[in-house]
């Protein structure tokens, strides 16, 4: 595997960590900035909304630029945003700094995913994308629990400072390893044709599936630390261990997702989504038992990460004339779901919902995502038979 793929995965790790880190240091931010936990949770919503809205706009603006300088500029913007987060004196400025970071997030994953797929032969694209997305997996495994531990020991600002340093190191690695010209790059299609590609039923239905899955995952994940503290009665010093369990499950998930994506994408995705529903049921019935909840977190994280590579391959296979825009829209779909999940969780909690009932959202959205994927798969089969 080219070294550049590992460098891009390191940047994905940095970006994944900053998106996840708020859930780990939520109580600390809430106390330090004198806001409620649901209000602090909106830092997840604001960041995700910035990615969802800014990503496609920046993708169109940067479509004509070479991949390497685009990736480097976006990486530097992200690193600067992390430094601003570390020094933000109040909630408003912290939210603004999160939005600065979000500007580079969506386009980075869009351009980088296409770049990774062009660095390897066709039959290794699933494995290469799996490794690249593995940066987010490692953010689950190491970034979130380590950032939480750092935040608990030295304050939440130290967590953002460490992410900024990691992002700068990743930028240097990309600059020294990524080829200066677009490997196997194809001419950029006209904007009208690119927009038409997004209307392919396999593309927009996959975006919808991503949104549904992330609403369920994030509505639980954003508030998992308060749940562990108040419902499961876990001691604060053990919280990083539970987060580490979830991260360990992600390793299994991303590996299986990469293998399944190189097999049969749509069939694999349906199987993964059914598994996610079952895992959400496990979380619901285990919130009062620390051991059972730890197992549930492991399995749920595995199922959530297992669907990441199949959905990316599904979109890229159907939108061949608009890979950068279509891939950037994947990041936007993820972040629409993340914003919606964090917002929905905050609204339901403020309305009186108990932390213990949060997995119910994942059950409902998981069933809906499974039905959407099955309908899209059957539609594709009918078209194939007709052809």
Q: What does the model show?
A:
By secondary structure, the chain is an all-alpha fold. Helix content is 83%, strand content 0%. It is built from 16 helices and no strands.
As a percent range, the share of strand residues is under 5%
Give me the count of strands. Answer: 0
Shape: globular
The CATH topology label is Growth Hormone, Chain: A
Q: Supply the number of structural domains.
A: 1
Helix-strand makeup class: mainly alpha
How much is the average pLDDT? 83
Number of helices: 16
CATH-assigned homologous superfamily = MFS general substrate transporter like domains
Q: For the terminal residues, how far apart are their CA atoms? A: 37 Å
Largest sheet, strands/sense/barrel: none
Low-confidence stretches: none
Radius of gyration: 20 Å
The H/E string reads: HHHHHHHHHHHHHHHH
Question: In the CATH hierarchy, what is the architecture at level 2?
Answer: Up-down Bundle
CATH class: Mainly Alpha
Please bin the fraction of helical residues.
over 70%
Secondary structure blueprint with pairings:
Elements: H1 3-24, H2 26-32, H3 37-61, H4 67-87, H5 91-118, H6 125-154, H7 156-177, H8 191-198, H9 201-221, H10 224-230, H11 239-261, H12 265-286, H13 290-306, H14 308-318, H15 323-350, H16 359-386
Structure characteristics:
mainly alpha; 16 helices; Growth Hormone, Chain: A; 387 residues
Quick description:
The protein has 387 residues and is mostly helical. The chain is built from 16 helices and no strands. It has a single domain, classed as Growth Hormone, Chain: A (Up-down Bundle), CATH 1.20.1250.
């Amino acid at each position: 595997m080219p070294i550049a793929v590992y460098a891009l995965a390191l940047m994905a790790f940095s970006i994944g960590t900053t998106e996840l880190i708020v859930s780990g240091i939520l109580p600390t931010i809430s106390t330090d900035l004198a806001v409620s936990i649901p209000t602090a949770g909106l830092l997840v919503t604001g960041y995700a909304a910035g990615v969802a809205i800014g990503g496609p706009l920046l993708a169109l603006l940067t479509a004509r630029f070479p991949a390497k300088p685009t990736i480097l500029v976006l990486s530097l913007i992200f690193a600067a945003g992390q430094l601003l987060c570390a020094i933000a004196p109040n909630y408003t400025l912290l939210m603004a700094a999160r939005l600065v970071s979000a500007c580079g997030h969506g386009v980075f994953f869009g351009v980088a995913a296409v770049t990774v797929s062009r660095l390897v032969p066709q039959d290794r694209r699933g494995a290469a994308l799996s490794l690249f997305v593995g940066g987010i997996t490692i953010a689950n495994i190491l970034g979130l629990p380590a950032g939480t531990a750092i935040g608990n020991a030295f304050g939440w600002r130290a967590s953002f400072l460490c992410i900024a340093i990691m992002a700068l190191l990743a930028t240097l690695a990309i600059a020294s390893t990524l080829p200066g010209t677009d490997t196997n790059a194809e001419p950029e299609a006209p904007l009208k044709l690119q927009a038409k590609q997004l209307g392919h039923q396999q593309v927009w239905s996959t975006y919808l599936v991503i949104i549904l899955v992330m609403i369920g995952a994030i509505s639980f994940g954003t508030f998992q630390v308060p749940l562990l503290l108040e419902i499961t009665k876990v001691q604060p010093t053990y919280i990083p261990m539970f987060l580490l369990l979830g991260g360990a499950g992600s390793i299994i998930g991303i590996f299986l997702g990469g293998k399944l994506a190189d097999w049969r994408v749509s069939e694999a995705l349906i199987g993964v989504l059914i598994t996610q529903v079952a895992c959400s049921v496990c979380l619901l019935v285990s919130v009062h038992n620390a051991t059972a909840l730890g197992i549930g977190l492991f399995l749920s994280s595995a199922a959530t990460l297992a669907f990441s590579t199949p959905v990316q391959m599904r979109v890229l296979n159907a939108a061949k004339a608009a890979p950068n825009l279509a891939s950037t829209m994947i990041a936007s779909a993820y972040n629409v779901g993340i914003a919606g999940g964090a917002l929905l969780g905050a609204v339901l909690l403020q309305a009186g919902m108990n932390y213990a009932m949060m997995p119910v959202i994942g059950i409902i959205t998981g069933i809906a995502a499974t039905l959407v994927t099955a309908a899209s798969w059957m539609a594709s089969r009918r078209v194939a038979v007709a052809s």
